[in-house]
Amino acid sequence: MSDDDQGAVQIEVESDIAAARRVVREVATSIGFGVTETARIVTAASELGRNVYKYASKGTMHWRTLRNGEISGVELRFEDHGPGIADLDEAFQEGHSTGGGLGMGLPGAKRLMDEMEIRTSNGEGTTVTVRKWRQH
Ligand SMILES: Nc1ncnc2c1ncn2[C@@H]1O[C@H](COP(=O)(O)OP(=O)(O)O)[C@@H](O)[C@H]1O
Ligand SMILES: [Mg+2]
To answer: Rounded to whole angstroms, how far apart are CA atoms 103 and 56?
Structure first.
């Protein structure tokens, strides 16, 4: 697998979430994802970016394009040094929110993407990595 292109968007103020959405839309489109798939990826990015802003107050979205033989894809990694997620099982239950939200962000993003990995540790932060693959 060879990596083509990568970049990062800092998430510090609310408008950075919109900036991250725009970058993800551009990257997904450039890889050749269609309108529907791009919308799914952008929605997932929006939810994960908002979580960084809301629960950790700041962090970074790293993005990179992926290629595995005939298949290309995109990887998004949201990193923060916030409080961490105490109970991951609970966090992935639809409707569970510690922030008065809808509690659909994490489960929704997982459904919208092909792969998701989370590393989180109490007081040290959270890293959520998601990937989406596209057949040529
Ligand atoms: N980056 C994060 N840092 C700390 N806690 C998080 C983070 N992302 C999600 N969480 C926790 O997981 C819960 C579920 O997140 P989510 O499904 O996006 O729902 P919502 O944001 O509406 O609460 C949040 O309420 C919060 O407790
Ligand atoms: Mg959320």
So the answer is: 16
Q: Is the pLDDT of residue 2 over 50?
A: no
**What mean pLDDT comes out for the span 49-61?**
98
pTM: 0.96
Q: What is the C-alpha to C-alpha distance for residues 90 and 84, in angstroms, rounded to an integer?
A: 13
Q: What is the dihedral of CA 136, 115, 31, 29, to 10 degrees?
A: 120
7 lines ligand 1 (CB under 6 A): no
Asked whether the predicted pLDDT for residue 100 surpasses 80, the reply is yes
- pLDDT higher than threshold 60 for residue 22: yes
Distance (angstroms) between ligand 1 centre and the Cα of 79 equals 13
Question: Which residue has the CA at smallest separation from atom 10 of ligand 1?
Answer: 85
Please choose from 97, 104, 112, 124 the residue to mutate so as to test ligand 1's pocket, defined by most ligand atoms within 8 A of CB.
97
Ligand 2 centroid–CA 69 distance in Å is 34
Tell me yes or no: is domain 2-134 CATH 3.40.50.150. no
